[in-house]
Amino acid sequence: MISKKLEKAINDQITAELWSSQLYLQMSLFLKHEGWEGSAHWMGMQAGEEREHALSMANYLIKRGGEVKLAKIDEVPCGWDNLLEVFKAVYKHECHVSELIDELVDLASAEKDKATQDFLWGFVREQVEEEATASGIVDSLKRAGENNYIVVDRELGSRK
Ligand code: MG
């Protein structure tokens, strides 16, 4: 059985993951509107992944005897200057999510909940990948330069 403190913290993280999903969906639609089809596709998949994270946490909570309570999702930002700014915002957001996951691990550790710590290590590893991927795309766009963003956009369109 999971502690009430951890139940609340994981529910908050579920809300944060759903907010991330909403943010990436908004970015995907913005990019589509701007004609960046490949990036819009990539971001749409990213939105789906964040929803999967929320569901994975919800299922874990239920398995441990906790109750899932979906909360209100706050409005997400909309409108970025260019493709590079969108991916810079993704990178910044993923760094923030990494901090949230780290805080959850600290709490699980303070609560002496080994199973939750074990569950969360998967997300700690996931964040390493998320940060590296976003940072890699930012680097690619910088290297390509605005006139060649299309090359990076095409590559992003091949995400499966
Ligand atoms: Mg996530």
UniProtKB/TrEMBL annotation:
Stated EC number for the protein is 1.16.3.2
Q: List keywords of the entry alphabetically.
A: Cytoplasm, Iron, Iron storage, Metal-binding, Oxidoreductase
One Pfam assignment: Ferritin
Q: Which GO terms describe its molecular function?
A: ferric iron binding; ferrous iron binding; ferroxidase activity; identical protein binding
Q: Which InterPro entries match?
A: Ferritin (IPR001519), Ferritin-like (IPR012347), Ferritin-like_diiron (IPR009040), Ferritin-like_SF (IPR009078), Ferritin_DPS_dom (IPR008331), Ferritin_prok (IPR041719)
> CDD domains this protein is in?
Nonheme_Ferritin
Q: Which domain of life is it from?
A: Bacteria
A cellular component term from Gene Ontology for this protein is: cytosol
Q: Where is the Ferritin-like diiron domain?
A: 1-145
What compartments host this protein?
Cytoplasm
Q: Do you know which PROSITE patterns this protein is assigned to?
A: FERRITIN_LIKE
* Biological process according to GO: intracellular iron ion homeostasis; iron ion transport
Which positions in this protein are listed as binding Fe cation? E17, E50, H53, E94, Q127
User: Gene3D superfamilies from the entry?
Assistant: 1.20.1260.10
- Show the catalytic activity: 4 Fe(2+) + O2 + 6 H2O = 4 iron(III) oxide-hydroxide + 12 H(+)
> What family, per the record?
Belongs to the ferritin family. Prokaryotic subfamily.
Job description of the protein: Iron-storage protein.
Name of the protein in question = Ferritin
